[in-house]
């Protein structure tokens, strides 16, 4: 059965999925935005786990969810928007692809994404939603183990952008 792709509006820290993806920074430090919210809800154990990962970085960092309802946190460092000529689109696609591949390799079935890079990192939200939708659709075709992907949108505008992006990337048949 093909995976379900859902869009929800709200706080990613409340979602009881196998993994939520964190829009992390390179230091894997708590910081602001969605990352700060995830760390506040998970508790200090998450920052401690991140600190040891940052000291000896695995290729694709992943932690337990600690006090979150999600079982795991996958940390993805999105690109800082610099005008679009610095490979930002590919880097953003890599975040979605790598997180899904890691989830699939770990046997996880449900995964929720925030709109990576569209806050403090300044990536235009409409382009980012399109890249997210296209990359998730492409990757899911190769990853039948994943049953559900959630785009967790912070606000109505982001929700509508993801809805439009999913419609624009829907398979034709
Ligand atoms: P980045 O540094 O990658 O831009 P931000 O955390 O600043 O990351 O923003 C990424 C997106 O996450 C933005 O669209 C922001 O509105 C959204 N966001 C902020 N808090 C939450 C939250 N608690 N749940 C889901 N999304 C959130």
TrEMBL record:
InterPro entries registered for this protein in UniProt: Macro_dom (IPR002589), Macro_dom-like (IPR043472)
CDD domains: Macro_OAADPr_deacetylase (cd02908)
Tree of life domain: Bacteria
GO molecular function, one term: O-acetyl-ADP-ribose deacetylase activity
SUPFAM superfamilies xrefs: Macro domain-like
Residue stretches making up the Macro domain: 1-170
PROSITE patterns: MACRO
Protein name as it appears in the record: RNase III inhibitor
């Amino acid at each position: 059965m093909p995976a379900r792709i859902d869009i929800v509006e709200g706080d990613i820290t409340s979602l009881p999925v196998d993994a939520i993806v964190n829009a992390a920074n390179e230091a894997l430090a708590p910081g602001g935005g969605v990352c700060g919210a995830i760390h506040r809800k998970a508790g200090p154990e998450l920052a401690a786990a991140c600190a040891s990962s940052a000291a000896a970085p695995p290729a694709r960092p992943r932690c337990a969810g600690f006090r979150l309802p999600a079982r795991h946190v996958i940390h993805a460092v999105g690109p800082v928007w610099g005008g679009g000529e610095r490979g930002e689109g590919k880097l953003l696609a890599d975040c979605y692809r790598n997180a899904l591949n890691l989830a699939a390799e770990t046997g996880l079935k449900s995964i929720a994404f925030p709109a990576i890079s569209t806050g403090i990192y300044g990536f235009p939200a409409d382009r980012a939603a399109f890249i997210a939708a296209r990359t998730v659709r492409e990757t899911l075709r190769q990853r039948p183990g994943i049953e559900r992907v959630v785009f967790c949108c912070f606000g109505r505008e982001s929700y509508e952008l993801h809805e439009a992006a999913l419609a624009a990337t829907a398979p034709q048949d």
